[in-house]
Amino acid sequence: MIERKDAMQRVRLAHTRSLLDELRRAGPLSRAELVQRTGLSRTTLFDIIADLLARNVVVEREPVVEGQRGRGRPSSAVSLNPAAGQIVGIDLGRARINAVVANVGHDILAGGSRKVAASAAPSRRAAAAIALVEELVERHGVDLSTLEAVGLGLPGLVRDPGRPDGSHGLTTAARRTVDRFREHFGAPVVADNNSHLAALAEATWGAAQDSGNVVYVRWSDGVGGGLIVDGRPVRGAHGAAGELGHVSLDPHGEPCPCGGRGCLELRIRTSALIAECTARGEPVEEVAGLLDRAAAGAAIPAAVVRDAAGLLGHVIAGTVVQLDPSRVVIGGDLGRLGDLVLDPVRQAIRRLAIPRHPRRLEVVAARLGDDDGALGAVAAVLRHGAPDPQLAPPGAAGGPGRPGSRG
Ligand SMILES: [Zn+2]
């Protein structure tokens, strides 16, 4: 009898965990969505939710429209108790720092950015990021007393290829930056490449929501990317998965700083496109000028962008053949040009990625803005797993949904 009771408790705990994991990763969900995502029966799910509401682990939120696409009737959503933990997300980009403060209920409490000189030393960039977070916290009156973790996006290689995938696999530079943030905030730090994080943000809140298999490209002056396969972000054995910009278009081409030759990035990075406009007889003023002129339909800039998008499409077609995604998302500066960029990519995929193989693949522009890396850093923390609800129920004094006040 006792064994049977233990077994039932274990099953119940596993069900509770899977429900909390869904709420953590996806944010507020209706009961119907939770039934669909967890595969639990309505009776079991409603029972677990009633228990979690009573213990203040989850709270009822304002009504949401089921499916979030304007169909169906509004129903109330359940979310993790927002007071249970805050998360700071930081994107330490090469020319700009973005930061957001969020909570485990997926509310964005504050966000902002700051320009930084591309030549600034890592310690100065870290100091600027910390100052930015402190300013945001002060201005928006955010309470970080239950700060759970800091998510950190860094450009380039974050993992040390010499030490595949170990828990101490960060490069020396990344480790130093991570230590700085951990000491300052007194919280764990989760670090990853910022293009990988932007992909995760699009999969969590943006253009790749509910797509389990995604190829994401961040196309600006660098060409980075991220892959989501069967719902999971893919880092690869050395943290370098999704580096589409360093796929070679020509084995005898120009040498690339990565050590390769003829890399896609050399041909389509924004600085190359600006140079190409000049070479074809229509100089443009920096990136903003390139984007404005191309969007306005100026013949040469638009043609330069279309040609580059065709090359990108050629490389993406190879990835499509190998990964069979349901969505390709183009972000970064060039993603803002919409169909001017998306159409050549669609055509290249149709023409080159096993045209006889029927597939439903959407090629869309990213939906999030410049804070995509910082949001992705928050999403990475949310995916890292929740504290055990049995061991650490949130204090949440004064927070929404006191025990017994609802449900
Ligand atoms: Zn390269």
TrEMBL record:
Signal sequence range: none
Region (Disordered): 385-407
SUPFAM superfamilies the UniProt entry points to: Actin-like ATPase domain, Winged helix' DNA-binding domain
Feature: compositional bias, Low complexity: 385-395
Matches recorded under Pfam families: ROK
Biased composition (Gly residues): 396-407
Family, per entry: Belongs to the ROK (NagC/XylR) family.
UniProt xrefs under PANTHER family: BIFUNCTIONAL UDP-N-ACETYLGLUCOSAMINE 2-EPIMERASE_N-ACETYLMANNOSAMINE KINASE (PTHR18964:SF149), ROK (REPRESSOR, ORF, KINASE) FAMILY (PTHR18964)
Name this polypeptide is given: ROK family transcriptional regulator
